[in-house]
Design brief:
Length: 84
């Protein structure tokens, strides 16, 4: 496992992407705190698969935002989960 700060990562991105391609984890820090982890495709075994969307992104306009009550938002989330 390799640890790199964001400034060094920016300067040597190709190097760290190469490490990730080899299956090595790269931990990215900012002010000595881990903020992200870079994984290569080879290291992705056992991870959750990417789910295809169940509906079109245009329905986000219908959801609105602050105008809905929490109950409406929860119902939309539950409806999407049950559509599997």
């Amino acid at each position: 496992m390799t640890i790199v700060n964001t400034a060094t990562l920016k300067q040597q991105l190709s190097h760290y992407l190469g490490l990730a391609r080899q299956g090595k984890d790269v931990l990215i820090t900012n002010h000595k705190r881990i903020v992200a982890r870079l994984l290569g495709e080879a290291a992705s075994e056992g991870r959750l698969p990417v789910r295809t969307p169940t509906c079109d992104v245009s329905i986000l306009k219908d959801i609105g935002g602050f105008g809905l009550s929490n109950k409406d938002i929860c119902q939309e989330i539950l409806k999407e989960r049950n559509a599997k």
